[in-house]
Amino acid sequence: MGEFAFRDLGKLGGAALDLVLPRECGGCGRPGEQWCDTCAGELRDHPIRLTPRVDPGVPAWALGRYSGPRRRSVIEMKERGRRDLVGPLGAAVAAAMTCLNRWGELDFDSERPVVLIPAPSRSRAARSRGGDPVRKIARAAVGALPTDCGEVRSGLVMSRGVRDSVGLSAADRATNVAGGISVTVALDELAGRDVDVVLLDDVLTTGATAAESIRVLGQHGIRTTFALVVAGV
Question: Which domains does the chain show, CATH number per domain?
Answer without folding.
Answer: 35-232 (3.40.50)
